[in-house]
Amino acid sequence: MRLLVVEHDLTTSQRLRRGLTEEGYLVDSCGDGPEAVSRARAVGYDAVVLDVRLPGEDGFAVCRRLRGEHLNQPVIMLTARHDIADLVRGLDAGADDYLTKPFSFVELAARLRALLRRADPMRTSPLRCGDLWLDVAGRRARRGTTELSLSLRELALLELFLRHPGEIISRTQIRERVWNSAFGVESNVVDQYVSHLRRKIDRPFGRKDIETVRGVGYRLRLNEI
After folding, report:
1. 8 A C-beta contact, residue 155 and residue 162
2. What is the C-alpha separation between 219 and 129, in angstroms, rounded?
């Protein structure tokens, strides 16, 4: 899942980005309102973490603009303000949740998971192809009854394959969806991670479900086990 963090304070932005990345999300960040709206128009974010205090255009105005342009991804607002009037103002601007600073990162992560479940229950539902199974929300994977030990990156790669079984997925698409960059990751890194994933989900079970499509990318074979 891909998030946009809109936070004016660089240190806070970096901490949020690092923590959310460790939670398994792809995270973009920016520090002002106009760029936030521009990014939200261009990218199908699953949710936005939006600071109220922004230069030029505050978070309330940004949220109103997002909703005015029918950009309906969940928005959780962050603010140092504790007034009920500001809470009401944020919710009336279109925010789905409102968290006051200082806050626990654990609470922010839990609130995000709840928002994402409500926004698209199917997005966090377990995925299955044959005897491969992935609990997206719980970050657990199985082949048949055998639990698989996968890194966050490997889980993201498996999720991509399971959301598109039988489809050819190019290396560029993998870089964009799993590394959040179409150009900052070398193709051999993608190939290495696909190889890592094969060693965990295919080879121990005598399977060859992840196929190489020469010159293009990879495909997860459809299975009806």
Report:
1. no
2. 12
**Quick one: average pLDDT of 19-37?**
89
pLDDT of residue 166: 92
- Domain annotation for the chain: domains and CATH numbers: 2-122 (3.40.50.2300), 125-220 (1.10.10.10)
Token pair in block for residue 58: 């505050």
Q: What is the pLDDT of residues 124-142, one digit of tens each?
A: 678 999 999 998 877 889 9
The pLDDT of residue 181 is 62
Q: How far apart are CA 189 and CA 92, in angstroms?
A: 45
Per-residue pLDDT band at 13 (split at 50, 70, 90) = very high
Q: Could you please report the per-residue DSSP string of the chain?
A: -EEEEE-S-HHHHHHHHHHHHHTT-EEEEESSHHHHHHHHHHS--SEEEEES--SSS-HHHHHHHHHHTT--S-EEEEES---HHHHHHHHHTT-SEEEESS--HHHHHHHHHHHHHHH-GGGGS-EEETTEEEETTTTEEEETTEEE---HHHHHHHHHHHHSTTSEEEHHHHHHHHSS-SSSS-HHHHHHHHHHHHHHHTGGGT---EEEETTTEEEEPP---
- Tell me, what's the pLDDT at 189? 87
Structure-token match 């230069």, residue found:
55
- pLDDT (tens digit per residue) in 179-222: 766 555 666 888 999 999 999 999 999 999 999 998 889 999 98
